[in-house]
Structure formats: C-alpha cells, structure tokens
Amino acid sequence: MKTIPLAIIGAGPAGIAAALTAARHGLKPVVFDEQPAPGGQIYRALESTPLRDPELLGQDYWHGRSLIEALRRESVDYRPGHMVWQLTRDGEIGVLAGDTAALIRAERIVLATGAQERPFPVPGWTLPGVMGAGAAQVLLKTSGVVAQAPMVLAGSGPLLYLVAVQYLRAGAKVAAILETTSKENRRLALAHIGGAIRGWRYLKKGAELLRELKRAGVRHERHVVALRAEGDETLTGVGWRTADRPDDWQHCEATTLLLHHGVVPNVQMTRALGGAHDWSEQQLCWRPRRDAFGRSDIENFFIAGDGGGIGGARAAQLQGELAALAALESLGHIDGPTLAREAAPARRKLDAELVVRPFLDALYRPGDSWRRPDDDVVVCRCEEISAGEIRRVAKLGCAGPNQMKSFTRCGMGPCQGRLCGLTVSEILAAENDQSLEQTGYYRLRPPFKPITLGQLASAAGGAPEAPARNETETAS
Amino acid sequence: MKPTALVIGGGLHGASAATQLARSGFRVTVVEKNYAGRHASGVNAGGVRRLGRHPAEIPLAVAALARWQRLETLIGDDGGFHPCGQIKVAENDEDMARLVSRAAEVRELGFDHEIILSREELRRRVPAVAPHCVGALACDGDGAANPYRTLTAWRRQSQREGAIWREGVQVTRVDRVPGGGWRLSTDHPDLPGLDADWLINCAGGWAGGLCGALDECVAMQPQALMLTITERVTPFLGPVIGSASRALSFKQMDNGSVMIGGGIAGCIDTGGEHADVRLAGLAQNVQTALGLFPFMRDVRVVRTWAGIEGVTGDGIPVLGLSWRHPRLIHSFGYSAHGFQLSAITGEIVRDLALEREPALPIAPFDIRRFDSSSAAARASHTH
Asked: Is any Cβ of chain A less than 8 angstroms from the Cβ of B83?
C-alpha cells in the first residue's frame, strides 16, 4: 500500500486552506474531494455554475474564487471525484474513483468534511417535493435548477433567508417563509448581543436579505409552532400553526417545501474512527473533540472546519490553516516556534470570526418539539421508523441508539443514520431521562457512503485469495 | 437453600446457560460488562447450520436443531428462524470430490443430514448461481435466524425463570472462597462483591482473559469477524450459501438485503471493545461472493461491521468442567459457529452444574486439551 505524508479529505474552505498551507511550506498534500470540482458546499460549482450573474448568488459565494484559483495554481495533488468510503485509525484510506476502489495510507490526515443539514422531521417530510434548503441551494449552484413553484421555505437560520433570496433572484415564485424562531429565542439571544454587535457584518447581511424578501412581497409568517407537509403522492400544500393563533391550521398551496434548521457537523468519519465526541448544548449537536489547532484525540488525525463545530466558511478557512500547520509540525516538517508564529494571526482572526456564534446559536436554536417530533412522524426514513416506535422501544428498556438498531433496524438503511441519528439520540435521551452523552450515538460503519459490491471487490486487486479454511471455520 | 450460579458474559451461551440453570433451581446472576449481545452474539450472520460441522460438534448441532424447531415453545419466540436450508457450493471437480467424501464421512458417523446435489439440482434450487458451479452439499432443515432477536428471547426467558441480569458491570477480580464457591469483584459501585457456588465462563472473546486469571491453559484469541450487508434487492435466493473451498457465507434476508460473511477477521483495537473492518479482507470476501453471484456486482453495500468472538486454536469450543477448580464450568470459544449450538449448550452446562453426565458427548471440548502439562489428557482428546 502506498503511503503519503499528508491527506486532506474535503475541498471546501477548510480543506483548500489546509492544502494551500501545506503547499506553501513545501509539502505537497493529496486532497480527496468527493465532488467533481473544488469549493465544498459553500463554494459549490463556483468554476462552472451557469449562474454567472455575480449578484444572484451573492458576494460570499464569489469570495471562494481566490481560494479555488490558488488551489488550481499551487503544488497540490487535487483529486476530484474521489470518495473516501472508509478510514482506519492507522491511516488506511479507502478511496473510490470511478468504479475503482483503492487503498492508500497517509501519515497525517486532515478531515475537512464539513457540515450537513440538521434533520427536520415533520409530518409529511418524506413526500416528493420536500427537501432541505441546503440541498436545493446545491441544485441552484450546480445546474441553475430552480425548484418547482409555488415554493415555501420553513425553519430558521441565515441560510433560509439566503436561499429564499437566491431563488427569488433566479426567478422562482416564493409563496411564503414560515419562520420557526420563537419569541423566547429572541429574548435569550439578546444576552449575547455584545458578540453580535462585534460580528455586525452577519447581522447586516441578515437584515438586507429580509428587506429584499419584504420588497418582493413574500409572505413572512413568524413564530410558527407546528408544520406539516400535505399531499398524498406528492406535495400539494403546507399547513402550519403560529404562536399567535395556536389552534388554527393555516394553509398554502405549494409544490416545493424547503426545510432548514441550520447545519450540524458531519461526524460520519470521526464517529467511525471512534474519536471522542461532546454534546454541544449551545449548537445542539455532537462535536468531535479537537484542540485549538484542530488536533483530534485520534492520533495523527486533524479536524478543520464545520466538521468540528459550526463556525461558517471564513472560520473554516482559518481552521484549515491551523490544522495544516499542526499536521506539518507533527510530521517534523516545521518546528514548534514556526507553528506558534504562523498560527498566531490565524488564531486571532478565528476568535473574531466566532464571536457572533453564541448570538446566532441562541437565536436560531430549534425548539424541543421540532427536534423531538410527535409519535406519528417518521424519523428514520430508510426503514420507516416513527418517533412513536422509538419511544415504545425506549419503554422496553432500550437505552441507546445502537440497541435501537438491533430492536427496530432504525438507522440501518442506505443513509446509515445520517438523517435520523441526532433525532434518535435526542428522543432516547428525553424518554430515558438521560444526558445525550449517556445516551450516545450510532456506532458508524463503513462504507461512509454506499459503494457497489463490484467496486468494493476491486480493492482486493489481483491479490491471491485467502487459503481455504477448515470446514469448521466458516461463520455461523 | 438454593444453589447459586454466576454467569460471566451476557451473550447467547450465557443466556442459554442462565435459562437452564434458573429453570433447574439455581439462583442465577448474569454479569455483562457491556450490554447483552454487544459483540458476536448480537451481530453474527445468524446461520443455523449443521452443514459442514466438525465431527465432534455434529451430535450437538443435531440436538440443537431440534430445539430451534420448537424455539417458540421453549423461550417464547422463534428468533426469526427460517429453515431455508444451507448449501455449500462446489466450483470445480476438486471441490466436488471433497464434498462427496465429506458426505460419506458424515454418513459413516451415523448421520444422514448432509446430501449431495447434482449440478442440475443445484441450479434448480439456486437459479442465480454462476454457471461454472458443478454441484453442492446441502442440509435441508438448516437455515438462518435473527441473532439479536434470538438473544433477546433467551435473555427474557432466563429472566422469567428468575435469572438476574447485570449489564454494564465489569468483573475486575475472581476469587475462590475458602470452603468452596466464588467471589467476584466488579467495577460497579453498587456491586462490590458477588458470591456464588458455581461460576460459569461464557465470556466469549474475553474468556481467554478470564482463564488467565483462573490459571487455566487455553489457546484462544479474540477475533473481529466481518460482515457486509447490501441494499435491498428483489428476492432471488432461499437457502444460505457457502463455498466448498473458500471462506463464504451468503444469504438473502427477508427484507431483500444480502448478507455476506465467512469468518474473515478484521482488527480489534487496543481497548478490545471496538472492532474495525479490514479493507483487504473485506474486498476479498466480496470478490468470493461475486464469483458465485456475478450479477450482484452493481448492488450497493450499505454497511460493514465486525463482531468480536473467541476463536480457539483448534476451531472447536471449550465446553465442560474445569479440572483446576471445582464448580467452574466453561462454555466459550465457539470460534464463529456457536450461534446454532447456543440452543443446546445451556442444557449441557446445567447437567454439569447438577453434577450429572450430560446426554451428549462433550469430551472433545475439554479444556485440558490445551494444557501442555497434561500430556495424557491431550492424547486422549486429540482427534
């Protein structure tokens, strides 16, 4: 098996910045990117998007151009279309490119695998026509695909406004925005207003987006407390109730419903590696343990960007630099004083970047009933397990998500729990009156994303088969 | 006063032993360091197989199948057992010759459950098998069950019989009590010490460590045995498929997904509680499966995993009394084929604890076969 000094997984702002940092210090890293082109989700398809009008996707998106251009220019072994489907603690990486699976070993690995949308289970969320706002944004960036109108966006968080505005600019009819942020959240967020003022750019952006939506005459419902996607075969409408009219279901016709309750770290790889994870009550998500440089508790692994906790694209870029510096230092490629000197400015900027987070996290914190839905709501989409079934099994004495798998197959379908893991842990913790740490999370198993048997077999290469075994030694 | 028994290990063999002991009047406590069925017992391939058993295991496997056939009556749930049959496929004439002589060997021992299938008969039973396969050895009445469901049923039955389960409790020390009996120390604040007349070692992948603490000689390694499962596909396969010359266990489950195993070892991390798959071995296992079912090439893998199991040096279990300590019974080292046997092993443990001769021959499983200082014992138990 070939061994390389430094592998970086992911080519969003964190992965690119890590790669550029390594290259600047004379070490050529290998970047494995599942996507066909660099940029991650935030700068997705920046080089190829059909939406060339810079106004449409906004300044933040085009900020990625300088990063991507540098990646193309510098001495970086960038490998697009390379999906990492397995990792071991000793640095063995299973990579799939086209139909060929291969194994490669890296002495140091920077995980820059980013975030994913928080699960947002509501009645009817499995209907065709309902999707994540982030996923819809990917369609828009990569192919200029505008989802079917009339469109409703529901949830909370800055991305919700941004996607609404981007769709408006692209010519979509946005029928309504249903905001789930509660009055209570606004009050609690005020406690963090100091940080918010110092991070005023974020607030200004949010206010501008809201103004644009208002100018366009988009219906804006606040304090939504219940939501359902309606339709038999496919989405035909959306129903909701608000805090002000808690007994009235209001309706609106829609063929597309975009849901969004913020993003959470994608912990698929750090979990599979068995790294320590802490529950963040502030961000309501698991965060793999890492130090200020992104060193994880798994030897030779580093975590950069939103995969270690949500900080946004600019923070991710700085964390990418820091993680690469720490990796270079542990390889002996740079010395301790160099690490300290080079890291100081990035760390200062990172602190400034993160100052607004407590405010945003408090303001856009999804309420309990959104995260732990009613009994009739499907939680595990792959195996069609409802919240009620999870609660029933909890009463039978099921203490954690891994036993839940054995009892119900919950989390064992093709998505491997990516879409239900947080919800299952939260429901179980509440039912068993345990902390999230006590409850735990799914043990994740490779492959991180499905690969075919033929692709997997290709990793065996031409190696001779294991010798025939004794009759008695085949598995039961 | 009732005699007491401590079962170390909340896997299938521990649950089976606990059930039978409790039913026979013992006060039983099962001590499990994690949760019931955390490793091999909960995540194995679920094969209920007499086919291809080591000759010493055949009488037990035959008796166990009779239990499986009425499991619901015995423990209140059938464990999801389907008698869909097991088939071991020959890919060439050499394989076929091996299977034919195997069938003859089993008949000579007085059993008739393994039968030879011609090429045509194999094709009739398994239309999807690759055309180069020349025949097979089959065992009708064998099949597969759901491991975790089976374990849960045994655990519940043992509890109905009065056994007490202590999960999340790690045994830290084992001492003999003067005058007979045992005392266990644990890491649990509420359970500093547990006393019992009998100690039952059902610690699976961790049984070797326990033997070490008891000064028993045994050649056993924990191994992490890997399994792969695919997305759901249209039903195409009834029986469980193995290979005459390659490590493989291949079956389609009720929900359409296909499980591929074969006792291929992954890695166990230093803490011993976490098993990792080893890519190269997994890839080879899948290559073997595709050799028999080439049309599966484009089916997606959903998950792979490994469960930790105790594998002995000679590939057959340790089941019987200790010769070093009174009132110590071993039931471990089933070496990746103990799932089916779990239906009977509890009865054997019970007979030993009642100090009566078990109804089935267990001499080959005697732990003394590993004791180099006991050459005589070794000689008498070597096949």
From this structure: no
